[in-house]
Known about the structure:
The protein is of the alpha/beta class. The chain folds into 2 domains: 24-322, Aspartate Aminotransferase, domain 2; 325-459, Aspartate Aminotransferase, domain 1 (Alpha-Beta Complex), CATH 3.90.1150.10. The chain contains 16 helices and 14 strands. α9 (254-257) links the parallel β7 and β8 (267-271). α2 (73-79) runs antiparallel to α4 and α12 runs parallel beside α16. Residues 1-64 have low confidence and may be disordered.
Amino acid sequence: MLSIERATEGGVREHGGSSSSDERSDSSPLEQKEGGVREHGGSSSSDGPSFSSAKAENLKANDRSPHKKKRGFATRAIHSGHDKSDPHGALTSPIYMTSTFEFETAEQGGARFAGEEGGYIYTRLGNPTLNELEQNLAGLEGAEACLTVASGMGAISSVFWTFVSPGDEILVDETLYGCTFAFFRHGMEKFGISVRHVDMRNPENLIREISDKTRIVYFETPANPNMRIIDIRAISEIAHSKNAKVVVDNTYATPYLQNPIALGADIVVHSATKYLGGHGDLMAGVILSSAEDMEQIRYVGLKDMTGAVLSPMNAFLVTRGLKTLELRMERHCDNGEKIADLLEASTKVEKVFFPGLPSFAQYELAKAQMRRFGGMIAFELNGGHDAGLKFLNALELCKIAVSLGDAETLVEHPASMTHSTYEPEERMRFGITEGLVRISAGLENSDDILADIEQALIRA
Length: 460
């Protein structure tokens, strides 16, 4: 492990201090609702010394509020991290659109680089706009620390380039986003890191495959594109028995529906391009972890290895997106359930993959670790590849597009689009068939979405 000076999550080097959260003592216990995780009001990253003392005191005073423990997810998403000390009283925080920060004296600049004085230096190391978003997300996900980066792939690569070295082994689930699969296949293996795929739906498979060389166990749940659910708690216990870190991609679920750290995961990543932003107008990634791990990720993975720095403008847009996350996720979930019911009743459909259907193989596990079941659905059409393309081309309202979590309902064909990086035999072995279609349920009126899907099924 590289020796790195303690750092605040504002991206500012701080000599000898820790980056524990001001909010940590106010974290709420895991709440249960209908057998699933309701929410986890965990800690957020600390307010760095780059903030003025008045700002820090305002935030701390707010954190000490006796009513804070009772605040719900939407309230925290709207209010957490906001700077109340702005001299102009702006309700919305300003965007610090700057690459570098001025030092008052040459000595101050040297002191900051030496870690002897707090303060912002350069946006690759930290920025107030990014810091506000990171505080908010850490609290919502129940993490000690958060780092925002330029994309979901920037998040994944920053984590792995921090913790693995040639000769190490990583174990990953069989079903992954296509670019993540390519990163492991063409990136990790190219540099002498062993990557092995394990069907983690059955924890016994991991017990057989894990070894003392395993550094990271990685999976998505729900998985892209066929909605596999992985038992986060069981996999984490097995991985930790070999001192391996558990990294979970929580993009499909968002912090509103699932909190992997509360279930034992060490690191959580998101593509904030998707639900967190929510409007298809930005690219961003998120990493959440302990403060100790985040020091390494920020100052090795991001600063020196990937340089995947998030634009302050995009950080502002994600912060704005979080304010409506709960409302949007409830609508995504409602529409997803209705679409799944329609597809399951259709004679044109061979199989539906949606964790909220009682017929779904891992329905009970999904209920146990998710608040609701999300807005992503996959299904196999009778007729295979050709039927899948005909269905897409027959859509009139829903959009043929990759990505997910937008206001619009998006439909794609994984075998020829998002998962074309897999070899054909691998796609079949991992359950990504030629007839598989993926739907990201949007925010439109459900009757309109259902009518469009129904007419496209008839024409397929």
